[in-house]
Write a structure and sequence with these properties.
Helix content: 25-40%
Order of helices and strands: HHEEHEHEHHHEHHHHEHEE
Largest sheet: 8 strands, mixed
Number of domains: 1
CATH architecture: 3-Layer(aba) Sandwich
Number of strands: 8
Radius of gyration: 19 Å
CATH class: Alpha Beta
CATH topology: Rossmann fold
Shape: globular
Structural class: alpha/beta
Distance between the termini: 10 Å
Number of helices: 12
Length: about 350
């Protein structure tokens, strides 16, 4: 029986998370190219402000006139800041986690602007992609030494999952890493690993990361993300898979020096529930302030309070910074499943 699971309107900014499969099976509501004109205006002199100062560059059109669109909220300072004031925090991070809603082209345009400037400044030691699974690890070890006749050749080389992840969104980011000689690692687990984790006990490495209250929150989010359609018996194995993904992203993100950048869905980059906790657990010398989480979030109609978008759980803010964009769609993904 389908439960009438109450859904927060803010939950739509994340999309419906699909924890089974590989984590890449997000249905693209539309397929839009990241226009060259958007990238062209993101010059090194003002690399981050152009997207804000030129609203005609937004490719998503829903709620484009929302008062939060283009603004950046700092949870650290509890105020809005400019792109130029955001930059010092980004470039000084040991770990920079760039969140996204996977089907929003503006999120990828902003990510590319950030990545290109970081690489230009020589700040990036490694990039890790949620969109790459462990089966790409071997070719990734040869990534920078391989010559590609075309982007299609790069796509094939990386065993890219085009059904799950639109290459038009992620190809430019991988090309930026390649052109900048930045090593790339896979952040996600394979379907085979998902199946193994699903039927196995919780690994010791992740068993004590969260307290009982936080685990209850993860179970609740699993329920909500699956539209209240799952039996409760499925919650623990699905949470185990989600935790294994975050643990794997953290493990494959670690570098001894410089900055490592993670590109992943907004839920993964949450300070309160996601990857930062596994980074901290794996490095006693690391401090939370060294991990910077920048979420790219779609605005929600009639919601003008930036703190509401955090959906903060406990004392730790979910993100250090939120960059607001128009939305791709206001569809409730669960309606089509009921």
């Amino acid at each position: 029986m389908t439960k009438n699971c109450p859904r927060s309107p803010i939950f739509r900014i994340f999309g419906t998370m699909k924890f089974m499969g590989t984590g890449s099976r997000w249905e693209a509501l539309t397929s839009m190219r990241i226009f060259v004109t958007v990238i062209a205006v993101l010059t090194l002199s003002h690399p981050l402000s152009a997207q804000v100062d030129n609203p005609e560059n937004w490719q998503s059109v829903l709620y484009a006139d929302h008062q939060l669109v283009g603004k950046i909220w700092s949870s650290r300072e509890q105020q809005f800041i400019s792109p130029d004031n955001l930059w010092p925090s980004l470039i000084s991070a040991s770990y920079l986690l760039l969140g996204e809603k996977h089907d929003n082209p503006d999120h990828h345009a902003i990510q590319l602007a950030v990545i290109e400037r970081l690489i230009s400044d020589g700040a990036v030691s490694q990039m890790t992609f949620e969109m790459l699974e462990s089966n790409a690890s071997e070719p990734l070890s040869r990534f920078l030494e391989t010559e590609f006749a075309s982007d299609a050749a790069m796509q094939e080389f990386l065993y890219w999952d085009e059904q799950g992840w639109d290459w038009q969104f992620y190809g430019p980011l991988l090309r930026a890493a390649y052109d900048g000689s930045v090593p790339v690692t896979a952040g996600n687990i394979s379907l085979e690993t998902v199946r193994a984790v699903y039927g196995a006990p919780t690994p010791v490495a992740i068993a004590d990361i969260f307290d009982a209250e936080t685990m209850a929150k993860l179970n609740s989010d699993i329920d909500e993300s699956h539209c209240g359609m799952l039996p409760e018996s499925q919650f623990p194995p699905m949470v185990r898979v989600q935790q294994t993904r975050d643990f794997t992203m953290a493990k494959n993100l670690r570098v001894p020096d410089g900055m490592a950048v993670l590109l992943a869905g907004n839920y993964h980059v949450r300070h309160d529930l996601g990857v930062p906790n596994y980074l901290l657990a794996g490095d006693v010398q690391l401090e939370r302030k060294d991990i910077v989480s920048l979420a790219l979030l779609e605005v929600v109609a009639d919601e003008n309070e930036p703190a509401r978008y955090l959906e903060q759980f406990g004392a730790q803010p979910a993100y250090d910074y939120i960059w607001f964009t128009p939305a791709v769609s206001d569809e409730d993904y669960c309606d089509s499943l009921r």
